[in-house]
Design brief:
homodimer, alpha+beta, Thiol Ester Dehydrase, Chain A, five-stranded antiparallel beta sheet, about 25% helix
Chain lengths: ~150, ~150
């Protein structure tokens, strides 16, 4: 298991391969973000998106799936997230794109009130198959401390 | 249609009524956030969530659906969003909860390079049926300018 003590500031990981299908883009948009440029080719062509694109929240969800698969693989003792400091949908995501993720640990500290809990900041960037950045965010993570008895 | 010129800083709107079902919570989690505390009652009981809770990204998606329904209703000429400045999952969302949204326009400006485009910041807060804040975020929106020929 990977615990708080194992996180290294500056550590970079790259992973994931998510194929974005038109069917999934439209299914997500119909349910959660039914704006015309996520559902209709003609409406999308008339906007700065140029053509049908995925909901930004769908891009977050697909990125999360890659993050969770990676955390599961390395057995990271994650406990959820209090939030995101900054999130930018840098470029549209289109059906047919293949996404991947790069993460970097940028900060970590022990909880002051809960000795078993660690907090860390991680920058997560999602790229498409042309190595274009599509999503850039700084997320806050919670993680278990391996040895809560040891002072930080 | 509501255009950039119609947005008033300080304007508050309240809307939405989203019923969170266990089925939808697990469907979203299985696809996009398969962490044990979003999928398994026992695993969730062992965490600070206390019981099975929705993925934070699912809460964002449900909130977006209420936002889009409201924008559609008032015919707001929205053009998507470049991103979110700050997002906090303040409390867990549980199956059986009913969510609603409060938005407040907190800033607006014309694009310097595109006369037809306006930018605005809006704080969106999602509450549950007990009026507890579950999601708090500041989003950046793009909106069409009604009369691009008029100087801002």
């Amino acid at each position: 298991m990977i615990y708080f003590e194992d996180l290294e500031i500056g550590a970079v990981r790259e992973f994931g391969r998510y194929q974005v299908t038109r069917e999934e883009v439209m299914e997500f948009a119909r349910r959660y973000d039914p704006q015309p440029f996520h559902l209709d080719d003609e409406a999308a062509a008339a906007t700065h998106f140029g053509r049908l694109s995925a909901s930004g929240w769908h891009t977050c969800a697909m990125t999360m799936r890659m993050l969770v698969d990676s955390m599961t693989e390395v057995q990271q003792a994650g406990l959820g997230s209090p939030g995101i400091d900054n999130l930018r949908w840098v470029k549209p995501v289109y059906p047919g794109d293949t996404l991947r993720v790069r993460t970097e640990v940028i900060d970590k500290r022990r909880s002051q009130s809960k000795p078993w809990l660690g907090l860390f900041k991680s920058r997560a960037q999602t790229f498409n198959q042309n190595d274009e950045l599509v999503l850039d965010m700084v997320s806050n993570g919670l993680i278990r401390v391996r040895d809560p008895g040891v002072e930080s």
